[in-house]
Amino acid sequence: MFHSGSKLYLLIGINVFIFLVISALSIFEKLVFRTNIVDVYSYDYLSLPAYLPKLAVRFWTPFTYMFMHADFWHLLFNMLWLYWMGQIFEEFLGNKRILGLYLLGGLAGALLFVASYNIFPAFSQSGVLLLSAVVGGSASVMAIIAGAATITPNYTIMLFGIVPVKLKWIALFYVAMGFWGINGPNAGGEIAHLGGALFGFIYVRQLQKGRDMIGAIAGIFKKRSKLKVASNNMDRSAPGTPRQEEIDRILDKISTTGYDNLSKQEKETLFRASKK
């Protein structure tokens, strides 16, 4: 996980590690003390509450909820979809954006969940607001599914190893199921799923227009060197080895807008890099 360099494996590892730690402590507690304090406190302090006064004193939960899962099957299916769709996402956009999309997709799901439960009378005036909370990485995973389907909607996968299905139909199916599921017992979770899917779609559409929201946010926290180098004999036309960061930027642009949209200077930079 740590040596692969893949943010996808890192996300799966974090989710599995947190689940195993909480589960191990819970099992030990029940065997020895016959209590369930670990289950109660982990849910209370790591899940995302809809009630605003409680959320105000659990301000970290919009981040922690997306790494906590209710049970083994919840974890398993989320991690399987994360692995499958994450590989497709990384295949077309590299491994630098999936971590940001996972986090921002989860936050978008959290925002839509909290807003819905405090705005719509079906939730805010029914008494469920005080007790409602969500856990799981489903909103984050839905952001990656929607993002992958937006990048390559006609990408075909073999469902159950037998049936060829285009990625766009899988994404639309889960979005439709999420919408219809709002009437069911997991309304909060389904709303969060829709928030994550919506963000994944919007993010990739903006990326295709040349606006990278994840890159922009990452740039705010990027450490900048205070050292400035000046030269009175700078030959801008002198050929040299392009920086790896510049090459990566050009390759990212190709994956989103195509080679024909590169500027003349960018094409020359890529040509010099290919000679090295």
What is the CATH architecture term of the largest domain? Answer: Up-down Bundle
Q: From the alpha-carbon coordinates, what is the Rg to the nearest angstrom? A: 22 Å
Q: How many β-strands, per DSSP?
A: 4
**Coarse morphology:** globular
CATH topology of the largest domain, what is it called? Rhomboid-like fold
CATH class of the largest domain: Mainly Alpha
CATH homologous superfamily label of the largest domain: Rhomboid-like
Question: What's the gist of this structure?
Answer:
With 276 residues, the chain is mainly alpha-helical. It has two domains: 213 residues, Rhomboid-like (Rhomboid-like fold, Up-down Bundle), CATH 1.20.1540; 38 residues, no CATH class.
Question: Could you explain how this protein is built, in words?
Answer:
This protein is 65% helix and 4% strand. The radius of gyration is 22 Å and the shape is globular. It has a two-stranded antiparallel sheet with strand order 1-2. A hairpin with a 3-residue loop joins strand 3 and strand 4 (163-166). Mean pLDDT is 85; it is low at 229-239. The chain contains 13 helices and four strands. Helix 1 (7-32) runs antiparallel to helix 5 (72-93), helix 5 (72-93) packs parallel to helix 8 (138-151) and helix 9 packs antiparallel against helix 10. With 276 residues, the protein is mainly alpha-helical. The protein has two domains: 7-219, Rhomboid-like (Rhomboid-like fold, Up-down Bundle), CATH 1.20.1540; 238-275, no CATH class. The protein has helices spanning 7-32, 37-46, 52-57, 61-64, 72-93, 98-119, 121-124, 138-151, 167-180, 187-208, 213-221, 244-257, 264-275; strands spanning 48-49, 133-134, 156-159, 163-166.
